[in-house]
Each structure stands twice: as structure tokens, then as C-alpha cells.
Amino acid sequence: MTDAITAISASSELQPTAPSTSAAEPTSEIDFLAVLERIDESTQAAVQNLEAVAAGDDGVHLHELMMSLETARLELQLAVEVRNRLVEGYQELSRMQV
What we know:
Blueprint: H1 2-11, H2 32-54, H3 62-95
Helix pairs in contact: 2-3
């Protein structure tokens, strides 16, 4: 058993790499449109799974439906919380006196 562990550790030597500091790709920028598209895709997939289960399709299992619904719910909840934090930050900045 230790031979298998040794073989795995020897074959997967990870070398640390320095993060790329390219001027073309700032690391603090987030593509919100891509995030919203991902949330939309997740929600649409959950709705398709729900419709398939409701229609009696044997290709979609109940646990897959529940996982897709929960994933869509959590992604949407996270996006709403991020939006709320951004609005709060904007409101705080607008209340500051210059």
C-alpha cells in the first residue's frame, strides 16, 4: 500500500509557479457579465431537469434534480449578496463628505 502512495507522490510532483503579472490581464477585475451568464445557464439547466422529472423522463434522477436546483439557488443567492454589498458600499461612499 505504501508503494502505491509513493508512486502517486513521485508521479505528481507539483512545481510552484509564480502568478503571471501580465499588464493585459489585471487580477482584480471580474467579468460580471460572464458570472451572470453562468448563473443563467445553471438556472436554465435546473428548470430543464425539473421539467424532465415532471414529464416522467427516466434520464434525470431525483438527486440530480435536487443538486441542480440547489446549485442554481446558491449561485443566485451569492450574486444577490454581492450586489447588496456593492450597493451598500456605493451608498456609504455617497454619504461621505468631500
